[in-house]
Specification:
The protein is an alpha/beta fold. The chain is 46% helix and 27% strand. The chain folds into three domains: 54 residues, no CATH class; 195 residues, Double Stranded RNA Binding Domain, CATH 3.30.160; 106 residues, Serine Threonine Protein Phosphatase 5, Tetratricopeptide repeat, CATH 1.25.40.
Length: 387
């Protein structure tokens, strides 16, 4: 892949080694001083080069919306989900006073409200997944079953099996921990404030900045295979600022901090639920537009969105006596099948293009999409033979 920029625009094109050498030869033979040329002449020259290289290109670039496998694979046998809060609430620090005491009290409030918001976010996200028959937030599990211990965020397999049997669920989604930490910083500044005459004047002030880190850990327990299916930690940060004549007044001037913290906490739960779902991703692919009349006509059809019509023309070149042309046709068939969501056929055509016709672009294409198929078949294997 090559690129050429003019006035901030970046053009992608493909050139063979021969074309690159021809352009280099042209520039080596041209003896002129660019500084003596007008800006218009330079831009015109570059434009001509772009037209030359793009016009000679044998392929075009397209952007596809592909569906990638979910980051977390859930067995098809898991139909009933129990959500557990395994996190431990922090202890209140009664020695803190003044500003530090106010921040500590707010963090204690956030620890409770944030946990509930995160659990709700996950619950709401799982409700959208039609694979599951039942979603429960198990908020009445006795502490002796969960075995709360500082420094240990895991649940024993004996407890997991016990919970699943009591509440009739197949797997446990556990909030392993939920922690917040706030960094307080103060700097001198100024602000406008009305005086006794109700006239706004500039007065010395202090700006308070609260940087709160939210750290939220999740685990999925599947007792049938005694497997922790997934384990991840989400980190998020909320920065709040306020001004006042003193730190306490600056703290009181901060608006919407609690609401923002709760919403961000809820988002961590929602984001975790989305790890169970496939997601869209934009990828760049190339396809051949030159070689025979059929390729040129197919290009026109693709530009109008008729990939099936283009495929019919490419099929006519699959047995072309020129192996290079046949390889290009196989490669284009691979791209067409990927667009239709058939990765297996796409990889088969790319393999044929490379193996039978030594098309190097097909090898690169195979490496780009091969891992999707590997993950897909790995999930199918887990469902059939393991889970």
């Amino acid at each position: 892949m090559n690129g050429l920029g003019v006035n901030g625009q970046y053009f992608h094109y493909k050139m063979s080694f021969t074309k690159v050498m021809i352009l280099r030869l042209i520039f080596s033979k041209l003896e002129f001083n660019l500084q003596s040329m007008s800006k218009f002449c330079i831009q015109f020259l570059l434009f001509c080069i772009i037209v030359l290289t793009i016009g000679c290109s044998s392929s075009k670039e397209i952007v596809l919306q592909t569906i990638e496998p979910s980051p977390v694979h859930i067995s098809q046998k898991i139909k009933r989900i129990g959500i557990v809060n395994r996190s431990i609430l922090p202890q209140a620090d009664e020695d803190e006073t003044g500003l530090n005491g106010m921040v500590a009290a707010e963090e204690l409030w956030l620890s409770e409200q944030g946990r509930n918001a995160a659990l709700t976010g996950l619950f709401n996200e799982l409700l959208k997944d039609n694979r599951f028959e039942t979603i429960k937030i198990l908020d009445s599990i006795p502490h002796e079953i969960l075995h709360f211990e500082m420094g240990n965020d895991s649940i024993s397999w004996a407890s997991v099996e016990n919970i699943c049997n009591i509440y009739n669920v197949d797997a446990i989604f556990s909030m392993a921990f939920f922690d917040t930490e706030t960094k307080v910083s103060i700097k001198k500044t100024s602000m406008m404030q009305p005086n006794l005459m109700r006239v706004k004047v500039k007065v010395p002030a202090q700006e308070l900045t609260l940087e709160t880190l939210i750290e939220n850990g999740w685990k999925i327990y599947y007792p049938k295979s005694k497997e922790i299916i997934d384990e991840i930690v989400f980190n998020d940060q909320v920065i709040s600022k306020g001004k006042g004549t003193n730190p306490i007044e600056a703290y009181k001037a901060i608006e919407g901090r609690k609401e923002t913290l709760v919403e961000q906490s809820k988002a961590t739960g929602s984001n975790y639920g989305q790890r169970l779902l496939p997601f869209e991703n934009s990828v760049e692919r190339s396809y051949y537009v030159r070689g025979t009349t059929n390729f040129e006509q197919a290009y026109t059809l693709v530009e109008n969105g008729d990939w099936q019509g283009a495929a019919q023309l490419w099929e006519k070149e699959l047995d072309n006596s020129n192996s290079k042309i046949a390889g290009r046709a196989c490669y284009n068939m691979a791209v067409m099948h990927e667009i239709n969501g058939d990765l297996t056929s796409a990889i088969d055509w790319a393999t044929k293009s490379y193996k039978d016709h030594e098309n190097k672009d097909a090898l690169e294409y195979f490496l780009n999409i091969g891992h999707f198929k590997i993950k897909f078949w790995n999930n199918r294997f887990l469902d059939k033979y393991i889970n």
